[in-house]
Amino acid sequence: MICENLSILSWRSQRLGGLFFQSFFTNADVNQAVESARKAYQTWRKIPAPTRAEYIFRVGELLLQHKEELAQFISREMGKPLTEARGDIQEGIDCAFYSAGEGRRLFGQTTPSEMPNKFAMTVRTPIGVCALITPWNFPIAIPCWKAMPALVCGNTVILKPAEETPACATKLVEIFALSGLPDGVFNLVHGVGEEVGKALVEHPDVNLVSFTGSSETGSQVGEICGRTHKRVCLEMGGKNAQIVMEDADLELALDGAIWGAFGTTGQRCTATSRLILHHDIKAKFTKMLCDRTSKLRLGAGYNVDTEIAAIINQRQLERVCKYMDIARAEGANILIGGEIAAEGNLKDGYFFKPTILDNVTPQMRVAREEIFGPVVALMEVKSFEDAIAIINDTNYGLSSSIYTRDINKAFVAMRDIEAGITYINGPTIGAEVHLPFGGVKQTGNGHREAGSAAIDTFTEWKTVYVDFSGSLQRAQIDNRE
Ligand SMILES: NC(=O)C1=CN([C@@H]2O[C@H](COP(=O)(O)OP(=O)(O)OC[C@H]3O[C@@H](n4cnc5c(N)ncnc54)[C@H](OP(=O)(O)O)[C@@H]3O)[C@@H](O)[C@H]2O)C=CC1
Ligand SMILES: O=C(O)CCC(=O)C(=O)O
């Protein structure tokens, strides 16, 4: 993280001055935030959904207006390159316009009743107060993915952003405030996850928790929500792989691998951390990959020519270094990278050289555990069937990709890969907001974000029977056998 010119501490020590918003920092403040969200919920849920959606549409317009300023902010606080920071905000904008459209849908069902003069239907109702616990890697997009559909559906929200990116979250909430959202509809609490985040998850008046982050924390959140009967949506990362078959367009596959493995410095839950290469192209593709990787430019995210930016913090850098020791001990070869980058100004930040590990086998920890850094493991296969077996040999199931020109293999892969997302001839990253986002196995707990699936996450079904037989009713009941 590079955060010159940002006095993060001052964000933490002051309340937002906005008319409708407050930010909260202690457990006592969590209670206040929940109370505020609970109170606002009683009014917000009754505002027609198309009107609620108009606020979110305005947030989209405001994000567009403030895009460049926000991108600078993300880049300086979180560290990602400016072009990627713009993408982060664009996801928020896309999500705003998409979610706003849902305000005029929120479709229910009608179905014939068993009885005469009776009408049967379902309507969607909001859930209540939603706690949104978010990570640092997409400091604008992920809060938007959660908050926008939640609000359109009639819920009120409390955002607990990562402690690494409090300023981005505060900026985002200021933008929501500018849209004119009523008091208490959107609340922000800063603070350490184990205290403030946990207090939110445990709070009896929170009805839903939507969490994105590590498997360890996600499991704890899930346990508490299970015990307290809260709805919980968990998104906990992946060990995503890209397969490159012998008939693939290698230049295209190379673009995908570079972007998938090293985009956002590998700090994406969808990052390509395994490359499954067919024996026939392995040597050639590995050389192409090493050549291109060695030319990637490391630097501060806000420098326009930077391709690989810093890792978020010292702890994460140490974690990546630790995995290099593990890789060596397990017998993997480090073909390129494998160490901290300290040339010139790079020594002032948490830079790690983009790394390619070779001779990785399925049982190695570097093939099984989420590293969350610029590291990709190469695994060789001799057949398509082996490639599918290896891609599925993981506890996670978020994103996946295959490069092939064989339409039959592409369709089999689409059917047989155990993941929430499969790309054919595209990298494992780059989700679009109008399609469901999430994974199978230990990546999540069956919920999806984005797309119309987000509406399922943030609403309850109510079944309504309307009897319109009036004075005829008694006679009908009497005639029933
Ligand atoms: N799936 C994904 O997109 C992401 C996955 N990760 C994975 O997680 C690893 C560690 O990253 P880290 O940032 O520590 O991830 P965490 O899972 O710890 O943090 C994610 C969010 O949860 C909060 N939190 C932490 N502990 C609790 C708790 N007990 N109750 C409620 N909320 C809590 C954090 O707050 P605070 O920041 O204050 O600790 C943050 O807002 C990474 O190496 C990577 O493997 C990380 C980020 C995103
Ligand atoms: O690149 C993508 O597909 C989205 C990544 C993302 O949302 C994440 O890493 O949390």
Automatic annotation (TrEMBL):
<dbReference type="InterPro" id="IPR016162">
    <property type="entry name" value="Ald_DH_N"/>
</dbReference>
<dbReference type="Pfam" id="PF00171">
    <property type="entry name" value="Aldedh"/>
</dbReference>
<feature type="domain" description="Aldehyde dehydrogenase">
    <location>
        <begin position="26"/>
        <end position="464"/>
    </location>
</feature>
<dbReference type="InterPro" id="IPR044638">
    <property type="entry name" value="ALDH7A1-like"/>
</dbReference>
<comment type="subunit">
    <text>Homotetramer.</text>
</comment>
<comment type="similarity">
    <text>Belongs to the aldehyde dehydrogenase family.</text>
</comment>
<keyword id="KW-0560">Oxidoreductase</keyword>
<protein>
    <recommendedName>
        <fullName>aldehyde dehydrogenase (NAD(+))</fullName>
        <ecNumber>1.2.1.3</ecNumber>
    </recommendedName>
</protein>
<dbReference type="InterPro" id="IPR016161">
    <property type="entry name" value="Ald_DH/histidinol_DH"/>
</dbReference>
<feature type="active site">
    <location>
        <position position="235"/>
    </location>
</feature>
<keyword id="KW-0520">NAD</keyword>
<dbReference type="GO" id="GO:0004029">
    <property type="term" value="F:aldehyde dehydrogenase (NAD+) activity"/>
</dbReference>
<dbReference type="InterPro" id="IPR016163">
    <property type="entry name" value="Ald_DH_C"/>
</dbReference>
<dbReference type="InterPro" id="IPR029510">
    <property type="entry name" value="Ald_DH_CS_GLU"/>
</dbReference>
<dbReference type="InterPro" id="IPR015590">
    <property type="entry name" value="Aldehyde_DH_dom"/>
</dbReference>
<dbReference type="InterPro" id="IPR016160">
    <property type="entry name" value="Ald_DH_CS_CYS"/>
</dbReference>
